[in-house]
User: What shape does this take?
Amino acid sequence: MSKPIELKNVSKTFRHPMKVWDKVEAVKDLSFSMENGEIVGFVGHNGAGKTTAIKMIMGFIWPNSGEIKVNGKDPGDQEVKKTIGFLPERPYFYAQLTGMELLNYFGRLCGIKGSLLKDRSEKLLRRVGIFDDRNRKLSGYSKGMLQRIGLAQALIHDPQLVIMDEPMSGLDPIGRREVKEIIRSLKKEGKSVIFSSHILSDIENLSDRVLIIENGVKKHFGTVSEIIPPDRIRYKIEFDSPNEMKDAAFALFKGIRVVSERFIIDCDDLDDFNTKLSAIVEKGYPVLNAGGVLPSLEEIVFTTENTEVKQ
Ligand SMILES: Nc1ncnc2c1ncn2[C@@H]1O[C@H](COP(=O)(O)OP(=O)(O)OP(=O)(O)O)[C@@H](O)[C@H]1O
Ligand SMILES: [Mg+2]
Assistant: This one.
């Protein structure tokens, strides 16, 4: 059985948008492969090359050198494309369509119709949490709702490989958790998933393996614990507190700091993080940000040994 995705020494150079004589090396000599049923997270700072790599895998742009195989075939292959679901970084949809109409449109493009399409659309709308908004026009959807309908669109043809560029972007904490659940359920169904994020906490519990890209270069490829020793992750919770609850907020735990009117608590480890997060949510404080953060990706990248495990 072919691997869902295989890249060998792939490079992509763009002409510089401002200086025509200059080049931007967006992806440099990138090699990695994923196994069937695996979740791979692409992590890297803004401009690291994540979207460029994804666009090449999707066959939207071509590498200058190297080889890409998707299910053993060229990325442009029509049969291969039928097996891929894709959520772009900035999904654009016709604003005049309703959510239901959009799924209808994409479903029909993928050759699904009739009751199968209706059933699948309704199930997906429920799965992404916008069933009640299915008959509203997309022009009235919020950023998070558009992200959710984009996710439903990516799954309408029940693809075997799902590629999502920043699927959590624009979502509130509940939305992020729901998308993570969807990604987990896709794995349970035996699907392979690639998704990108520049937020480590989005990928740490979710990905089987992580590809860290920096300035277009693969820095590491492996499981999170292979790449980042758990003691290097600093867990942190940022939460808000309504005026009347401010004093009580300080009494929640020792060591609460206030930065720019945000309450911040650092946690010892993942268990401590989960306990504190549950307490904050239970007491009704709005959580602004929560997760494992690295002081900086570079620090990890430059101070750990090469931990790549397999290609
Ligand atoms: N069409 C293009 N023309 C010129 N340069 C481009 C083009 N697309 C991407 N680049 C450049 O390639 C580099 C990688 O961009 P890419 O969009 O792949 O990064 P990214 O990791 O997805 O970043 P982000 O987290 O901001 O989405 C950047 O320097 C970017 O400016
Ligand atoms: Mg991007």
Q: What stands out?
A: The first strand starts at residue 5 and ends at 15. The domain at 234-293 is CATH 3.30.70 (Alpha-Beta Plaits).
